[in-house]
Amino acid sequence: MGHDHDHSHLSDVQLRVRALESLMVEKGLVDSDALNVFIDTYETKVGPRNGAAVVAKAWTDPEYKAWLMKDATAAIDSLGYKGRQGEHMVVVENTPDVHNVVVCTLCSCYPWPTLGLPPVWYKSAAYRSRVVIDPRGVLAEFGTVLPESQEIRVWDSTAEIRYLVLPMRPAGTEHMTADELALLVHRDAMIGVKEVASPEQGDTP
Amino acid sequence: MNGAHDLGGMHGMGAIEIENPEPVFHGEWEKRVLALVLASGALGKWNIDKSRYFREKMPGPEYLNTSYYEHWLFGLEGLLEDSGLVSADEIDARMILRTSPTLPLPEPIEPVKPEQVSAVLKKGGPANMNDDCEKRFKTGDRVRVINRNPVGHIRAPRYTRGRTGTVVMEHGAFVFPDRNAATSEKVACQLYNVRFEGRDLWGDDMDYDPVYVDLFDNYLEPPS
Fold first, then answer.
1. CATH 1.10.645.10 for the B142-221 domain, yes or no
2. Where residue A88 sits, what CATH number does that domain have?
3. What interhelical angle do B48-56 and B28-41 show, nearest 10?
4. How many Cα atoms are found within 13 Å in the side-chain-facing hemisphere of B158?
5. Which chain B residues are within 8 Å of A34, Cβ to Cβ?
6. CA A189 to CA A201: how far, in whole Å?
7. What stretches of chain A show up as alpha helix (H) in DSSP?
8. Residue A113 falls inside a structural domain
9. I need a surface site. Which of A83, A202, B85, B93 has the fewest CB within 10 A?
10. Domain ranges (residues) in chain B
11. Are residues A161 and A67 in the same domain?
């Protein structure tokens, strides 16, 4: 599954996509230059750095955090992140008692404006099938082992609400600015399969 | 529909393959599929629920053996054929001959221009509605998911059907996806977030963690 197709199958798909694109351009359904702008947007402009900025601001600005927890769509919009697949945002906060993790078991819904396009594993049958019934086992595969006393809440985004996890701020970061903190916040912590590591623990990707 | 896409709780789907680092795209064709889906979706000939339904219609064995962008390609081809914009025959012919003939469009179409892309993405497709539709439940209420197995689109996962949980959030009125996928009619329906205790979904042989699911009023009933 995923990207390990045999060569002939893949070249067949490539040919079909090329044929479809040539037809759609010729028929005037799509504009070639516009296609490149769509691609460039998600390849270079929209990604998890956006979500990291949201998290870092929430960690350093109590008023912003209160707004984020109350009206995430507006609070995230205020930083310039809005639109497709982020129209209705809810932020769920990790605490010593509760850890949150997000999935879409029915397709692969994901908060695009804050995290960009989802990774292959998030869209895989393996993740989507297991994380609802065995979140501890799934998190362990990501190297995340949580105490039994910490409840894991699995959020299955089955409608148009998109969930972003607010991870716990790691110890030893009290002196850091929001910009410095944002560099510690990686995508997987905002999906909820990892925690944010302390700076002395090294930068997990 | 009870398709292969409705994966929650299934066993035997293999290990989770984590790539590190992971590129945004795996090959040029994935980029093209993403862009074609976004650019043609903006024409307004279909909606997000219908596009999800057309991906779900991919035969189960094929769905499980192909990647996300192949699901998207399958769905896009179905939507284009359904809307009379591009037929499967035209694609087959174009794969063989670069200058294959094309069928006329049912009506003139104005494609998204490069300078419009940013605004299209920023606007997105809000699904909330102002309609004052009936709100039968409130936070704290116990609710049971109805046991229905329609062949059409439904956003109540199978693992929740017949199960009882507690309303924890009231999201407000949203477009009811089942109807939107079938007829493109925008019917407002209250949306809630429901917490299910792990034991109520999976049994009491182990300590299972809770699952939170967004569910529409139409999917719920008071527990008996």
1. no
2. 3.90.330.10
3. 130
4. 15
5. 35, 39, 111-114, 116-117
6. 15
7. 7-26, 32-40, 48-60, 62-70, 72-77, 112-115, 120-123, 125-130, 135-141, 178-182, 187-191
8. yes
9. A202
10. 28-123, 142-221
11. yes
Q: Which site among B17, B46, B129, B159 would you substitute to test the A interface, given the most A Cβ atoms closer than 10 Å to its Cβ?
A: B17
The 3-state DSSP composition of chain A as helix, strand, coil percent (nearest 5) reads 45, 10, 40
Q: Answer yes or no: is A193 within a domain.
A: yes
pLDDT in tens, B180-214: 999 999 999 999 999 999 999 999 999 999 999 99
**B36·A33 Cβ contact <8 A:** no
User: What's the structural domain count of chain A?
Assistant: 2
d(CA B207, CA A51) in angstroms, rounded, equals 32
The answer, yes or no, to whether ipTM is higher than 0.90 is: yes
Interatomic CA distance for residues A122 and A102, integer angstroms: 9
User: How many residues does the structure list for chain B?
Assistant: 224
CB of A155 within 8 A of CB of A164? Answer: no
DSSP string, B39-102: HHHTTTSS-HHHHHHHHHTS-HHHHHTS-HHHHHHHHHHHHHHHTTSS-HHHHHHHHH-TT---
B78-96 confidence digits (pLDDT tens): 999 999 999 999 999 999 9
Q: Whole-structure pTM over 0.90, yes or no?
A: yes
Residues of the domain holding A23: 7-44
For residue B127, give the nearest of A121, A141, A160 by CB distance: A160
- CB-CB contact of A2 with B17 (8 Å): yes
**Minimal Cα distance from B97: which residue of A?**
A19
Q: Are B127 and B191 in contact (CB under 8 A)?
A: no
Domain-located, residue A105: yes
Residues A64 and A76 in one domain: yes
Residue A166: in which H helix or E strand, if any? strand A161-166
Instruction: Please give the CATH number for the structural domain made up of B28-123.
Output: 1.10.472.20
Burial status of residue B204 (CB atoms within 10 A of its CB: 0-12, 13-18, 19 or more): exposed
Tokens of B180: 């939107």
- Specify the 3-state DSSP secondary structure of A141: helix
How many Å apart are CA B131 and CA B115, to the nearest integer? 34
